[in-house]
Amino acid sequence: MSSLQSLRLAHLHHSHTKGATTRHSLMRTSLSAVPVIDIRGLEGASRFSTISDIGKACREKGYFQVANHNIPSSTLYGALHVASAFFDSETDEKQRLMSDDITKPVRFHMIKEMVIGEEKIQRLFLKHYAHPLEEWIHMWPSEPLEYRNNMGTYSVEVRKLALQVMEAIMESLGLGRGYLKNQMHDGFQVMALHAYPLCEHTNPCPSFGIAPHSDYSIITIVLQSSPGLEELDPKTNTWELLPHRYDSLCVHVGNYLEVISNGLYKSAVHQVSSNRDSDRVSIASLHSLSIDEQVCVADKLITECTPKGYKDSNLRDFLRFLPINKGQHLQCNDYIDTLKIK
């Protein structure tokens, strides 16, 4: 595996086309294809139109990029730097945190696969709970030394953004900006870090970093070091390579927002393909209600014409779902499909 320390800051400034693989160059990469929301529009006279744009993106795509989010570049780069350093390290921290137990609040895992008859690392994965920060941060990796400070700072900042976006999404659904506000404030945040090594085989690479899936969250906010995140456009059923913009973040509609919206906003299906150009690191911040709090369809969105379409559920239900179905080669929407009322 090539050194993940090669993720220098200059690499973060690449455009959406620079360094694209053959696979990626065949995909739709139009800047206009992926909605970009200027989050500053939520302040002042343009709030209504910005909320309308957010609602349209959630309804038509299930994902959008956020610009002008006010998270400092130093905070973004600091988080990517320590993530890269952790994955690249040879310390005992990885062994201490390594586990197959998905219920652990902090867990490191190495995913391997057979590629052309040879076992290769497909992805390195680190997950840890992040809110309330003081409850979990002492369990996070202690190396590199800056890890807890840098990742803690980013997790706090991205959570502020998530609450702001959630408020706008609830308003776009006609539920009012205060809907679920207290529950979200006391809710759950999981940081899921991924490292994707170079694919050394033919171009395009015959493997995926992550196969198509949707997130077990209300919303997920993704920070990536370089291109690689691919979104399924629900209208055209084609994959779009998300343009990599300077300082940009991507918001995904998660399974539980699909439930709350009674299917008006569908979960974003996405994947990550391996490539031959560079190692890649991403940090997904998943936001939901507390682990045992039921998520249900908003009463206001249940009518005679639009009856309740989803069962009530919570995060613990999802955690039970995974071990029961372990080894079943789950598809991208298997969990949300179990919640649909037929």
From TrEMBL:
This is Fe2OG dioxygenase domain-containing protein. Residues 193-289 form the Fe2OG dioxygenase domain. GO terms for molecular function: metal ion binding; oxidoreductase activity. Keywords: Iron, Metal-binding, Oxidoreductase. Gene3D superfamilies: B-lactam Antibiotic, Isopenicillin N Synthase, Chain. The lineage of its organism: Eukaryota, Viridiplantae, Streptophyta, Embryophyta, Tracheophyta. The keyword Oxidoreductase applies. PROSITE patterns: FE2OG_OXY. It comes from Rhynchospora tenuis. Belongs to the iron/ascorbate-dependent oxidoreductase family. InterPro entries: DIOX_N, IPNS-like_FE2OG_OXY, IPNS-like_sf, Oxoglu/Fe-dep_dioxygenase_dom, Plant_2OG-oxidoreductases. It comes from the Eukaryota.
